[in-house]
Amino acid sequence: MTGLLAATTSAADKRAAFRAGLASGSIQRLPGAFNPLVAKLIQEIGFEGVYVSGAVVSAELALPDIGLTTLSEVTERGRQIARVTDLPVLIDADTGFGEPMSAARTVTLLEDAGIAGCHLEDQVNPKRCGHLDGKAVVPTQEMVRRLRAAVSARRDPNFVICARTDAAGIEGIDAAVERAKAYADAGADLIFTEALYSTADFEKFRAAISIPLLANMTEFGKSELLTAQALESIGYNAVIYPVSTLRLAMWAAEQGLREIFAAGTQAGLLDRMQHRSRLYELLEYERYNEFDSEIFNFRLGKDQ
């Protein structure tokens, strides 16, 4: 039954692996998982980690990414995903769901959920998608208090606290770099440089910041879509693909539903569907069946 109902790797070991990965010199690739099954696929294919996007948690609830989701909703989705994968899970904790004390509580709940790390951002609350215009950021010292509270609440020193700055598109890249330095001084382990435009921007951050850096390669945003190899050569330590799997799935679902609506059957879609056998393989269905037959392979005698 080992590794069947839940991953075998402990939360502590996943956090240690994430720390080691960030220090390894090899870029850590973390695609977004919109549910636990996608997380199993991410692990099977060979990525280094799993990302849980706040925008995706919101979208799944048919809500825009403007801070409407709650700490409990985000934590529970993170728990469900972390449970099924041996990979470290990094989760989007928005602005910490309130004041610095709320950011501290956020860290404790995410630790309890088996998450390997979270990122907190310097936007005002309620926040908005990092690649939209009209964002606003809090003063640097307010974000520093948010981060210090989060760091102080951490019980496992390997739990990664990532500071995201949205300042580049608002105050300019030089101001964003200065913020990142302050966030590193406040105890952040990783800096998430949001909505940079070009390779030169990423290089400027790398030259100025001494701690690990994370890049966001989201589609249809402000950043040029650089390869993982290009980001690694610049010196970035991690890259997320936050909404890619949801966008792929929703595009396919919409196309399929429209065809069923128009044709009255899904017969023409079968070659675009995951086969039942592949789903069962991913779910490890056969191992469950073996386990079940091992339990119920006896009969009770008259005396029992």
TrEMBL record:
Its EC number is 4.1.3.30. Pathway: Organic acid metabolism; propanoate degradation. Gene3D superfamilies: Phosphoenolpyruvate-binding domains. Its cofactor is Mg(2+). Coiled coil: none annotated. It comes from the Bacteria. InterPro entries: ICL/PEPM, Isocitrate_lyase_ph_CS, PrpB, Pyrv/PenolPyrv_kinase-like_dom, Pyrv_kinase-like_dom_sf. CDD domains: ICL_PEPM. The keyword Lyase applies. One of its GO terms (molecular function) is lyase activity. It catalyses: (2S,3R)-3-hydroxybutane-1,2,3-tricarboxylate = pyruvate + succinate. Keywords: Lyase, Magnesium, Metal-binding. Belongs to the isocitrate lyase/PEP mutase superfamily. Methylisocitrate lyase family. Catalyzes the thermodynamically favored C-C bond cleavage of (2R,3S)-2-methylisocitrate to yield pyruvate and succinate. This is Methylisocitrate lyase.
